[in-house]
Structures are given as structure tokens and as C-alpha cells.
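#lab-general

N.A. 3:47 PM
ok so I finally got the sequence cleaned up, no stray characters, all 108 residues accounted for. can someone with queue access submit it? mine expired

B.Y. 3:52 PM
send it over

N.A. 3:53 PM
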Amino acid sequence: MLCDKVTQSSPDQIVVSGSEVVLLCTYDSTYSNPDLFWYRIRPDYNFQFVFYGDKSRSRGAYFTQGRFSVKHLLTQKAFHLVISPVRTEDSATYYCAMSTMLQVPRKS
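B.Y. 4:20 PM
back already:
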């Protein structure tokens, strides 16, 4: 049976402010170019989009500028989130997600 899934490592991390953290995410997909995402839920339960990526590009939310990036390693099927330097306001639960839904254009 074929299955699309993401796996996150190191679910709980305590990080010193000013340091770098890498949140690990690997994926297994039958689709050659899945859409990959990072989201987070902050302590106030605010759900936020963090980063998007596919085979050829990536894009982050406004607050990611300059401190957040992704390491998209295609051959290892990895989509790691890097935060550097970490700030107190980065405290949240981070989730890696994948979408393999194909969008078929409508006929006019």
C-alpha cells in the first residue's frame, strides 16, 4: 500500500534565545512534487502559516524575514525549518505538513 506521510523529529526542544534551531521534517510521497508547509500554534492558540515550499521555490510568512529559512533536501526528501537567531516570541508548537492534491484546470 502506498502512503504519503511526513515525520517530524525532536518534538520538544528547549532552545536558548539567540541560538539556532533546526526543526526536522522528512516526507514520503508517491507524488514527485508535493507542496510542503510549516505551521505553528503559539501559546495564545494563534495558528500561523510559517513557510511553504515545493521542488522549485519556497516562501515564508512576513515574520520569517531574515531569521527563518528552510533546508529542502530533495534527494533525502527533507524539509527542515531553520530559525536563527531564536527569539522568545518564536515559542510555539511547529507542524510540518504536506499536500499532494493535484489541481486540474477547469475547462471554460
